[in-house]
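Note to self: keep these together.
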Amino acid sequence: MSEAGALDTDIAKRFGVHVGTLMVWKFEYPEFREAINLNKDKADVRVEAALYSKAIEDKDTAALIFILKNRKKDEWRDGFVHRHEAPLAGEVASSIKDMEKDL
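Structure:
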């Protein structure tokens, strides 16, 4: 089931237990956890291959951009520059004095 890409919530539902119980089982039974993780890794590999195939063979622009943004982050990431500039203390004091004059 995890090999098909199922999430922990899906696996828990299939076993008829709460996801918290599944987490306890994964903690208490390392072999169980390893089996689930191994199968999830296999599913991830298939998804990666499908994405790569879609990007290269189908020339899917969204897939191409997604791959480049993740593999060449410095060159392809969206550029967001956040600036937090506060007025200098002297400018604030001067502004307050100007407002006091107007009162």
